Each structure stands twice: as structure tokens, then as C-alpha cells.
Please model this.
Amino acid sequence: MFGRDRVELKTPEQIRAMRRAGLLTRAALDAARDALRPGVTTDELDAVAAEVIRAGGGTSNFLGYHGYPKTLCISVNEVVVHGIPGGRVVQEGDVVSIDGGAVVDGWHGDSAFTQIVGEPRDAGDEELVEITRQAMWRGIAALDRRGRVGDVGAAVEDAVDGRLAIVDGYTGHGIGTAMHQAPDVLNHRDRDRGPKVRPGLCLAVEPMCTRGTTETDVLADEWTVVTTDGSRAAHWEHTVAVLPEGLWVLTATDGGAAELGALGVTVPAQ
Ligand code: MF3
Ligand code: CO
Model:
């Protein structure tokens, strides 16, 4: 029904249905975050999220996606994205990115966060996490201007301001009746500013940054994406909808009101 490059615009009612997927995604990621401490295995974190999604009446959109074997992607230190949960034991000072999503009634949520476990190894790791988080929020806020989708990437690039490397070759995406839809949402400025931002547009905004290189390799498991220089990486992601009245961050408990409010963007009351 929707061509690869056609943008699927959602009605306010459909966006309300997507909110349920967004909130279940949030609950699953929050539960994994609450369980994140030294000594836990990434498989244990995966099981925590899987149970929240199951109990909430949803399904995981990652599990089985092109054969992906788990509910979460858990990417530790030099792993940028798509780390597969397993027996790895989380250590104090690890930089852990947790990415996941839930499907409810056919609608998808997708979100990620990065957290340092216990005491940070150094201030640079804290900056890595915080600058990437701020870049995500500035990218989301740029949608409120109703310009072009490419304004997200420009805002991400400006927010990072050369302090981190923005990972090459990975982008955000449209989301709705599938996890990955048109359009691509770049994390940097591009000549092609992309489609117009209009009501009904739903995007996953997801900057990925490193303390070193923009370059990555994929490991032999065909999933795990690592920095080529071993530098540590962060990844933040939210699913956001453009409503006729304004933005709604579907995977944030408060709809994005606090973070966007701090950037001068008012989130309409739901
Ligand atoms: N959440 C990732 C994204 O943002 C997708 C993970 S790939 C999967 O696009 F196979 F793990 F699902
Ligand atoms: Co995504």
C-alpha cells in the first residue's frame, strides 16, 4: 500500500493508537534501565523487557526482524548499535545503549537510551551520553518548525557542534504500521532536505555518536556494529508524532513536555 519512498501520514486517531505502543516501549526500556547494574547479563536485561511487553499485550518488533534473535539491542562501550544480548556481564563504568520497541494493535514504537553503569570512567563518557541525548532533543524540537525532515539532521549536527563524531551510514526512520518506513532521518545536514514536515508524520529520531571515529564495522554475527577505533558510542532514540496542534513524543512518558519545553517547544495537552 505504501511505496518505499512514500511517507505514511497518520490520522490523530491512529497516532493515539501509536501512543499505546510508545508507552509500552517506554515501560519495557524503563524496566531494563532499572535492572541495569554491575553483574547483570545483557540476556537478563532482555528477559526483563520481553516480560513487560508480553504482560502489556504487545509484541517485540525486533524479535524476528530479518532474523534478529532478541527483544532488545544492547550495545556496550565500542558497540554502537545492534548488540545482541547474551552472557556478557555488565561492568561498572560501561556505557550501555539499550534499544527496543513494542507493537500494539499493529502500531510500532521504537526508542533507545544510553546509560553509564555506576561510576563513570571519565568525564568524556558523561559528555558522550549527554551531548548525544541533547542532540536527539534538539533534532526532535526542529520538527516543530514544520520545515523539512532534513532539519532534524541539521539540528543534530549543530547540537553536537563537532564535540563528538556522528556515526556514518545509520539513520532514523519513519515509523507506524512497520518499524522502518520512509523517510530516512539523517543525523547530519544534507543537500536533500527531504520531505515536508506535516501533521501525521511519525518519525524515529535517533542520533548515534562516538568519542572517536564516524566509521563502523559489523561483526561476524552480522548484527553488532562497532566503532573501527574502539571508541565508545552513545545512541538515543524517540518515536515522535507531528499532530495538527504540535509535537507528541510517543515514547516519552510526558510526551516530551519537559525536554521540549526547555527548548521553547510547547507540547499540546492530550
Ligand atoms: N531500533 C533499531 C532502529 O532504530 C532497529 C533494531 S534492528 C533489530 O532502527 F533487528 F534489532 F530490530
Ligand atoms: Co529506530
